[in-house]
Write a structure and sequence with these properties.
8-stranded mixed β-sheet, alpha+beta, 388 residues, EC 1.5.3.2, flavoprotein, 26% helix, N-methyl-L-tryptophan oxidase, D-Amino Acid Oxidase, Chain A, domain 2, FAD/NAD(P)-binding domain, oxidoreductase, globular, single chain, FAD-dep_OxRdtase
Length: 388
């Protein structure tokens, strides 16, 4: 006996409701038309990158000036959401970036960060090592050649409340949300795109795919070959000196440390009654046995650089980063499926841009003016190859 399958005809569908998809869905729903959002799980969830309590934000983005529009719009839109709905989506602790010219991975990043701040009137301070030691005595590993960039109006965004709010607002505006709905295939059909999922077939004039680590699986080998998926871990250790790590004395931190090959430790201040401090270092090699992996992480990345931290592990979380070869975003139409727009490879430095990207992608689909997106095109990966 044939299984009954619901058929939905919509104007726009958004596949993947992490922060990029949820933001796009929110803006599409506000602008009218029949809109549906689909996720394999029930967002927010721990299967992608858009969760974990905290995401760093800063306005002076060293990744390049093409990102400045997104982060500025995101900050403005975030403030508007907080004001309108009386919610706390961002903690403005300040963001401190530390590195040195001796560390190649940090020198360009610091230089570009400071240059963008200076060129665009972003409030900041540049702190020499002696001033860093005076202000932040809990940072015991500061080297003589270290320099700090402090952006006092930055801090961290709270991912789960932001996702919850945007999805709820999209539903209130009329969007349909299909949670716990796995997609089998996406194909081109006359007049648009067809999505076949569990128990439902969706025909949409336009589709946005913001599926993170599932992009390649959904859209085939050509796209999969451009993306790298990595499993990342955050360790939370018990704090002995809690006062030293509360927001009034400790900003959101990104610290490129020469002693560990330039690896950047991202650390978030304590809030409320919290007793555990979150530490993240991208691409950390960890033992499959949790105790051994946390011990090694503490010995390498915590004990030599931070005072007042206990080796007692309180929590460990994992998420997935999806990156392109140049670590830039991918915001472009699919080359073979008319009406399908790609939003991917934003992990690692994408969360702070998401509201601005959602607003822009919605404008693209609605045929409205947008900022120049050429820096995020698919073509950049194929330029110079035969046939391009």
């Amino acid at each position: 006996m044939a299984t009954h399958q619901t058929i939905l005809d919509v104007d726009c569908a958004v596949v993947g409701l992490g922060v990029m998809g949820a933001s796009t869905l929110y803006f599409l729903a506000q602008s009218g038309g029949k809109v549906v959002g689909i996720d394999t799980y029930s967002p927010p969830h721990g299967h992608g990158a858009s969760y974990g309590g905290y995401k760093v934000t800063r306005e002076a983005v060293a990744e390049g000036p093409a990102y400045l529009h997104f982060v500025r719009r995101s900050n403005a839109l975030l403030c508007d959401l907080e004001h309108r709905y009386g919610v706390s989506l961002m903690q403005r602790t300040g963001t401190l970036i530390i590195g040195s010219e001796a560390t190649s991975s940090a020198s360009g990043f610091l230089r570009d960060t400071i240059g963008i701040a200076q060129a665009n009137g972003i409030v900041h301070e540049v702190l020499p090592s002696r001033e860093l030691r005076r202000r932040y005595p809990q940072l015991i590993g500061i080297a003589e050649e270290d320099t700090g960039y402090l952006e006092p109006d930055a801090g961290f965004i709270r991912p789960e409340p932001l996702l919850d709010l945007q999805i709820a607002l999209a539903e209130h505006a009329g969007a349909e949300i299909l949670r716990n709905t796995a997609i089998k295939r996406i194909t081109s059909v006359s007049g648009g795109v067809e999505i076949e999922a569990e128990g439902v077939r969706i025909r949409a004039r336009q589709v946005v795919v913001a599926a993170g680590r599932w992009m390649g699986e959904l859209l085939g080998d050509q796209l999969a070959s451009l993306l790298t998926v990595g499993r990342q871990r955050t360790f939370t250790f018990k704090v002995r000196d809690a006062a030293a790590y509360r927001a009034e004395r400790f900003p959101t931190l990104m610290w490129f440390r020469e002693r560990v090959g330039g690896d950047c430790a991202t650390v978030f201040p304590l809030e409320g009654s919290e007793e555990g401090l979150k530490f993240f270092v991208a691409d950390t090699e960890v033992d499959a046995r949790i105790g051994q992996s946390s011990d090694r992480f503490f010995e390498q990345h915590v004990a030599p650089f931070f005072s007042g931290i206990s080796p007692e592990l309180q929590a460990m979380e994992a998420c997935y980063y999806t990156s392109t070869s140049d670590h830039g975003f991918l915001l472009d139409w699919h080359p073979d499926i008319a009406g399908l727009f790609l939003v991917s490879a934003c992990s690692g430095h994408g969360f702070k841009h998401a509201l601005g990207i959602g607003e822009t992608v919605s404008a693209v689909l609605r045929g409205r003016p947008t900022p120049d997106l050429s820096a995020f095109s698919l073509e950049r990966f194929f330029a110079g190859l035969p046939g391009h």
